[in-house]
Design goal:
With 453 residues, this protein is mainly beta. The chain contains 5 helices and 34 strands. The radius of gyration is 36 Å and the shape is elongated.
Length: 453
């Protein structure tokens, strides 16, 4: 029979339900199992990429185009695109919410079908990456929809697989179940990039030993002076392609120790006017806080930044998303010497002004400090350029100079360097702090305001 395949070409072999004539010719009719063509459509819709932290709503619509739907079941699976898995093995608790990078939070009931709400609510089964929900009876031409809520804890692309199985002819024993499979890849992205930086008081520099001479095994930790006002600038940048509305930005302590060891004054910002904090893609928002450490400690926890945001232009009743960003620990130390610069806010070309350098001793010991003042080409100055001074405990020493500007514009003041003999350490003010703007003549703004009154 294998050498004489003539019998395979009989016409009676090519009969239903075999649809492939090639299989019928070679006598493989028994190996082919045909399933009725599905006449029900399953559509998946997504409004752009998902953002970490939000409850991303994925609408699923089942539409009957020719078959009635009996005993329908909707199976939902989330699979990692990269193959690494949605679960992080580094987490200690495998069933905690944060242990899964992406998880299914819930499935809302049907829309527009009153009888289906009670029916689907009793058969719904939801896990972190799997969901099963029953589809109510649908006549020809009817549709049923639900919303799948997915939450991203970390940025990760996932593949969503949705499988619908239903009976097209009721509960007959010989009725074969029809299956429809749909898939969609969804990108999970970070909505905001949060950063922070510390700034010391303007024209007030502190001798911080940990900053000048860090320990060999110490980490890169910012140092703040004790009982001094430091400025903390927090930036939130929209790193997604979706416009966001930033509602509030605040700092909250993680424990009671931070509240007693540090004072944080909330500055003005988006919390006062929510409409002014609309962030376009790539736009950055900044808020200023005042930090006053009251306890000397090598590692001071400043708490966490709490942001409340949502997508701009969405539903007004939509819940806001809360994002938490932990601030790094800082080193708080008492500065033995503080150098302050005292100069007018601006200078006038050719008119002399007083430039004072105040050296404050905050210890109980006598401090010897050596200073050196560098010449500046834009000024003519009079005063001692270098010397060694002794500063009494809990007192200050003032170095006074007379300066005459020779050039207009923003000019660098003569830069001073202070060296402590006791600690063998030197420090100097920053370039921004030791600068002044020189006008060619006296500004007329005050005169114009006085004449208008």
């Amino acid at each position: 029979m294998e050498d004489l395949p003539v019998w395979k070409h009989e016409n009676r072999v090519e009969s239903l339900p075999t649809k492939d004539p090639v299989l019928a010719v070679f006598g493989q009719k028994a190996t082919q199992v045909d399933e009725p063509e599905p006449q029900v459509d399953v559509s998946l819709g997504a409004s752009g990429p998902a953002l970490v932290g939000e409850d991303f709503a994925m609408p699923i619509v089942v539409t009957s185009k020719g078959h009635a739907v009996y005993s329908g079941e909707l199976k939902i699976n989330l699979v990692d695109v990269g193959g690494g898995g949605l679960f992080s093995p580094r987490e200690a608790e495998p069933f905690s919410l944060e242990s899964h990078h992406v998880e299914i939070c819930g499935i809302d009931g049907a829309e527009g079908n009153n009888e289906s709400e009670s029916e689907t609510g009793s058969i719904k089964k939801i896990q972190q990456s799997f969901g099963l929900v029953s589809v109510p009876y649908l006549k020809e031409g009817e549709s049923w929809s639900c919303k799948l809520e997915i939450k991203w804890h970390r940025p990760k692309p996932v593949m969503l697989f949705v499988s619908l199985g239903y009976l097209p002819h009721g509960s007959e024993a010989n009725t074969q179940k029809v299956h429809i499979h749909k898939s969609l890849q969804i990108e999970g992205k970070m909505p905001l990039l949060i950063s922070n930086r510390f700034m010391l008081p303007y024209r007030r520099d502190h001798l911080l030993l940990n900053r000048i001479k860090p320990a060999p095994d110490s980490e890169d930790v910012s140092s703040l002076p004790l009982n001094e006002k430091s400025v903390l600038v927090v930036s939130a940048k929209n790193c997604s392609e979706i416009a966001l509305k930033l509602v509030s930005m605040s700092i909250e302590f993680d424990d009671e120790q931070g509240e007693t060891s540090c004072l944080i004054q909330q500055g003005g910002g988006c919390g006062d006017s929510p409409s002014s904090a609309n962030l376009a893609p790539g736009e950055e928002f900044k808020k200023v806080f005042t930090v006053i450490p009251t306890t000397r400690t090598p590692k001071l926890g400043l708490g966490s930044i709490h942001l409340k945001w949502r997508r701009e232009g969405g539903n007004i009743t939509e819940a806001y998303v809360s994002t938490k960003h932990k601030l790094p620990e800082v080193n708080v130390e008492a500065s033995p010497l503080v150098m302050s610069l005292d100069s007018p806010p601006y200078a006038i070309l050719g008119e002399p002004f007083t430039y004072a350098v105040r050296i404050c001793n905050q210890t109980q010991l006598l401090q010897e400090a050596k200073f050196g003042l560098a010449d500046a080409q834009s000024f003519v100055l009079s005063g001692s350029h270098s010397n060694t001074v002794s500063v009494l405990p809990k007192s200050e020493h003032v170095l006074s100079y007379k300066l005459v500007p020779l050039t207009c514009g923003e000019q660098q003041l003569p830069k001073i360097t202070l060296t402590s003999a006791r600690y063998a350490a030197e420090f100097q003010p920053s370039a921004v702090a030791s600068s002044v703007f020189v006008f060619p003549s006296a500004p007329q703004a005050e005169k114009a305001i006085s004449t208008s009154k």
